[in-house]
Design goal:
Elements lengths: L11 H17 L4 H19 L3 H25 L1
């Protein structure tokens, strides 16, 4: 028989850090990483517009992009 290696026990702060990271990954990404990436893209586009001085355009573009992301999510959900 081969001896099984003992499981490695990590220090408590490391386990907390890993647990914290797993929680946020599951909370933000969850089952649909496409929505997480889409939200980051929307925020990036709006931040770019605001940084470029087009704040009025950013105000108009934000709801359009969010609605587009919602429609894409619903269509993806219907196809499954």
């Amino acid at each position: 028989m081969s001896a099984r290696p003992e499981p490695v026990t990590r220090p408590l702060p490391m386990r907390w850090l890993i647990g914290f990271g797993r929680f946020w990954w599951d909370f933000l990404v969850g089952d649909t990483p496409e929505l997480f990436v889409g939200a980051l893209v929307v925020l990036g586009v709006v931040a770019g517009l605001v940084h470029g001085g087009a704040r009025t355009a950013a105000i108009a573009v934000l709801p359009v992009l969010v609605a587009g992301l919602l429609v894409a999510s619903v269509l993806r959900g219907r196809s499954n």
